[in-house]
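quick one, 155 residues, struct below
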Amino acid sequence: MMKNPIDLKGFIQIAIIVEDIDKARHEWAKLLNVPVPEITEQPKPEGPIQGLTYRGHEASYGLKLAVIEAPQGFVIELHELTDEYDSTFREFVKEHGYGVHHLGFAVGDRRDAVVEELEQMGYEMRTVGFYPGGSWTIVDAEKKLGVNLNIKPHI
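---
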């Protein structure tokens, strides 16, 4: 039993890597009867992204992102890779093809304690990213849970 359990009330996100984000966003919108989400492109910068690591090394990659927001604050994120650089997303596609990359959980101010406990349990931190006012940590849980986890302090 975890000292710092991940609460189901913090289940905030499903992230799916898709081959064609334009097609996927239209299909999801039609299925859920919601407006078609906008695409945000995050081009790969020249060097590493400040505060971002992949498997313990500085990282940088580009992607397209479309987010469908549910009324409860839950989101479905659609990701399309735009380059061949190593990342948690590229690793997943090479290993599994397109599909559900991670489930996201908001754990509040317990983020560091949860991440530390997961490491002690043998989970590897695949990607860690810090940005003003927040962070995201992709926990490599594919072999144990069948999907990666994204541990966030908040949405």
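The chain has one domain: 8-152.
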